[in-house]
Each structure stands twice: as structure tokens, then as C-alpha cells.
Amino acid sequence: MTIDAIIARAPIIPVLTVETVEAAIPLARALVEGGLPVLEVTLRTKVALEVIAAMAQVPGAVVGAGTVLSPADLEASRKAGAVFGVSPGLTPELARAAEGYPFLPGAVTPSEIMAARDLGYGVLKFFPAEIYGGQSALAALAGPFGGMRFCPTGGVRESNLRTYLALPNVAVVGGTWLAGKSEMAAGDWAAITARARRAVAIARGEEE
Ligand code: 3PG
Predict the structure, then answer these.
(1) pLDDT per residue over 147-176, tens digit each?
(2) I need a surface site. Which of 5, 17, 54, 81 has the fewest CB within 10 A?
(3) Do residues 19 and 48 touch, judged by C-beta distance below 8 A?
(4) Which atom of ligand 1 is the closest one to the Cα of 155?
């Protein structure tokens, strides 16, 4: 699967920082059921690799690793079963390590976008989106970088996801709001499914 094929599966990628392995399967099921099968598990907890391995077993889930900062992170998450990787940025080492693997690196400035484009990337994470100018920055970047598409994350919420997705150069959005720490700790999977459903409806313009 290419990164384009992966992001075409859902309008929103939940960004998941999961503290316990026990949460992995019910969380992935809850999100798949809510219509969001593409899941980014950040490598920010001790159990992240185990969480990826567990979630990868859930039917319908397309599980990737986030916060991939080094070739070692990429290698470890691939071994755990991640089928794509996401990084807040891009280094030459990471680009080499990610060759032939579905990868969504981050870039926000024109020079970073040009460097990533030279390496063959057509879709980039735009993080932290709200801090780097949000929708007006993305609209401005569409001028010189007409062919590039972005996945804004960082400050994307129910209240603004629709306007982000309405931009022609926004392919998909990501965010942590879909699965909060407290719901994960409480095992409130139904609330997570409901929020995912609502987000999909908003993305489709079916709900405000
Ligand atoms: C990420 O890693 O993409 C961000 O933590 C997401 O930011 P958010 O918490 O504002 O959604």
C-alpha cells in the first residue's frame, strides 16, 4: 500500500498516545467501528511498539507509527507491524531508511517542503498546524506548491476540521482529540466510537 492509498481510506487520522497494552485492541476496534481505520500510534510511550503489534491484529485497522524521529524508530515500528510511518519532520537519514515504505514526513516552511519534494514526497504532515499559520498558511502554500498535499495536525479539532479539509491541498487531517487520556483510562470505548462517527460526519459535511 502506498501512503496515498492509506490516507485515502479516511478523512481523519487519530493520533494515539497509548499508555497501556490492554487499551490497544478495544481502542483500535472502537475507532474502526466509528469509521476511522487509519491509526497513528505515537512512539511516545514505553508500550508503543506492543500497542502497534496488538492493534495490527484488529480486522480493518491500518496501523502506523507516529513520532518517528530516527531510522531506528522506523525499523522498530516496522518490525512491530506498522504499515506506515509518520514523522514531525524529515532528515536525510530518515528519508533513506524510509525508501520504499509508506511514510508521511513533516514540513512547514517553503525550504522544508522543497527538500521533501526533491526527495519524492507528495504528501507531508503540517505540524504543529495551528501554530504555523493554520488554514491561511496552507492556503498560501498552495500557490508555489500546487502539487503538494498536506496532513495538518496540531490544534485540529471538531470545530475546525471541516475548514481544513475544504482546502484543496489538504488530503487528510490528524489529531489526538478523538481518543482522550481519560476515556482510554476509563475504557470508555463507546464514547470514542461516537466521537469518531461525529468527526466522519463533520468531514463529510453531514453535521456541523
Ligand atoms: C501530533 O503528534 O500529531 C500532535 O500531538 C497532534 O496534536 P493535537 O494534540 O493538537 O491533536
Answers:
(1) 999 999 999 999 999 999 999 999 999 999
(2) 5
(3) no
(4) 10
DSSP letters for 99-162: TTS-EE-B--SHHHHHHHHHTT--EEEETTTTTTTHHHHHHHHTTTTTT-EEEE-SS--TTTHH
Tell me the chain's radius of gyration from C-alpha atoms.
16
- 84 phi, psi to nearest 5 deg: -155, 165
pTM: 0.97
Which residues are part of the catalytic machinery? 40, 125
pLDDT tens profile 43-72: 999 999 999 999 999 999 999 999 999 999
26: exposed, middle or buried (Cβ count in 10 Å: 0-12, 13-18, 19+): middle
DSSP character string of 27-44: HHHHHHHTT--EEEEETT
Q: Is 87 in the pocket of ligand 1 (CB under 6 A)?
A: no
